Automatic annotation (TrEMBL):
Gene Ontology terms, MF aspect: transmembrane transporter activity
Membrane topology: Multi-pass membrane protein
Listed transmembrane segments: 15-41, 53-75, 87-106, 112-140, 160-182, 188-207, 241-263, 283-304, 311-330, 336-355, 376-400, 406-424
Protein name: MFS transporter
Keyword Transmembrane helix: yes
GO annotation, cellular component aspect: plasma membrane
Origin superkingdom: Bacteria
Subcellular location as annotated: Cell membrane
Keywords, sorted A to Z: Cell membrane, Membrane, Transmembrane, Transmembrane helix, Transport
Length: 451
């Protein structure tokens, strides 16, 4: 399919469905681990370290996977710019599913000793490699198929897979706390959500195999213009842009991982903590807030087509800052309603700073190296932002005895993201095809005329 023969409405709908289903499955797998880390992994895999250190190690295992996202991004970026977007989407989906299912059958420390946490971390690393490569492909499939004036809305389709994944992961875990309460959840209940991944991966694989390749990549391939070393070319010409784009995402990601990284779930449900809510109500509150995140993410994609990516982002970071400042006072209310209100308010800001990201990133980089640019910026941003956010938050509370330090940390990351997005020129609606490489190569970073 060339760019002259635009995708049909039916094909675009199929791409939207495929990206939503695929990213939902990917992030379900990723978030099930993060939630389980906050709820049970400290006890099951790191208990000999002692209660406090076990919690830090469990959250640290969540963060370790982020260090390997760049590896997934580098490999996927090379393959995606050389051989196409679709093949990468299928490969990453299968890798994530296999790693998740294996965690579901992994013996605990009590059964096999030190090998248990070692194997757990290795499987989490595989999840990180998959996540590092998956997002860029999903983003480009949706944005490069989209009508120019609706690119933000179409680009929001892989983005809503994240709150959908969180909703599904939290919902299944909450259900299992009811089906297998107390010791039964520790014994076997937590494993069911991981094993469910096998079914979800089969569905996601079937859906993703059914979509056409991106028309931008098809055009590049037809002209034999694929880049031999896209990653090297990216860093040779666009390093400042990669850094700024990564900081934009870091500002969102650090705050988002208060829930997606399992920190709030652990903090609010800790029997020895200041809140002391049950696991079930906490998980249901997170599940409900994910619906708010989903709606605001979708709305933000739509708004960015009308207001521009930069304006939508800037407004979103302001709302996110307000959500950060009110989060812990509401969590400390100690009721289901106050927890839900705090998480929901935060989720509005998270959605406004996440919905436009796919279109923003796609419009920043030239077509021939776009997969590499999008994936690597995203991976670096996730390390700077969410990788160790739950671990940092836990350490700050242990050191200071107060969540005020966590609020300062999250507010600082939000302001960093706002500053980064203000450094970018708005390129809403720029042509994405290979005929416009020269226009795309002009740096969108203020102060840099050309890459």
């Amino acid at each position: 399919m060339s760019l002259d023969a635009q995708p049909t409405a039916r094909e675009r709908r199929r791409v939207v469905a495929a990206t939503i289903v695929g990213t939902t499955v990917e992030w379900y797998d990723f978030f099930v681990y993060a939630s389980a880390a906050g709820l049970v992994f400290g006890q099951l895999f790191f208990e000999p370290a002692g209660a406090g250190l076990a919690t830090l190690l469990a959250f640290g295992s969540v963060g370790v996977s982020f260090l390997f996202r760049p590896l997934g991004a580098f490999v996927a970026g090379h393959l995606g710019d050389r051989y196409g977007r679709r093949v990468v989407l299928v490969l990453t989906l299968v890798l994530m599913g296999v790693a998740t299912a294996l965690i579901g059958v992994l013996p605990t420390y009590a059964q096999i000793g030190i090998a248990a946490p070692v194997l757990l971390v290795l499987l989490r690393i595989l999840q990180g490699v998959s996540a590092g490569g998956e997002w860029g492909g999903a983003v480009l499939m949706s944005c490069e198929h989209a009508p120019v004036r609706r690119r933000g809305l179409y680009g929001a389709s892989p983005q809503i897979g994240v709150p959908l994944g969180l909703l599904l992961a939290s919902g299944v875990l909450a259900l299992m706390t009811a089906v297998a309460p107390g010791d039964a959840f520790l014994a076997w209940g937590w494993r069911v959500p991981f094993l469910l991944s096998v079914v979800l991966i089969g569905i996601g694989y079937w859906v993703r195999r059914s979509v056409e390749e991106s028309p931008v990549f098809v055009e590049i391939a037809e002209r034999a213009q694929t880049t031999r070393q896209p990653v090297l070319r990216l860093f040779r010409r666009h390093t400042p842009l990669v850094i700024v784009a990564a900081l934009v995402f870091a500002g969102n990601n650090a705050v988002g991982y208060m829930t997606t990284g399992g920190y709030v779930q652990r903090y609010a449900s800790d029997p020895a903590g200041p809140v002391g809510m049950g696991q079930g109500p906490v998980l249901w509150a997170v599940t409900a807030s994910a619906v708010v995140w989903l709606a605001s993410t979708w709305a933000a994609g739509w708004l960015s087509d009308r207001l521009g990516r930069r304006t939508t982002y800037a407004a979103g970071f302001v709302v996110q800052l307000a959500g950060v400042l009110t989060l812990f006072p509401l969590v400390h209310g100690g009721t289901f309603g106050s927890l839900l209100l705090g998480l929901s308010f935060l989720s509005v800001g998270l959605g406004l700073t996440y919905g436009p990201q796919a279109a923003l990133y796609a419009e920043l980089f030239p077509a021939s190296i776009r997969f590499s640019g999008v994936s690597i910026s995203y991976a670096i941003g996730s390390i700077l932002g969410g990788a160790f956010a739950p671990t940092i938050a836990t350490a700050l509370v242990q050191a200071t005895g107060s969540t005020t330090s966590v609020t300062v940390y999250l507010a600082g990351m939000t302001l960093l993201g706002l500053a980064a997005v203000l450094l970018l020129r708005d390129r809403t609606g720029i042509p994405l095809g290979p005929d416009h490489e020269e226009q795309q190569a002009a740096s969108p970073v203020y102060g840099l005329a050309r890459a």
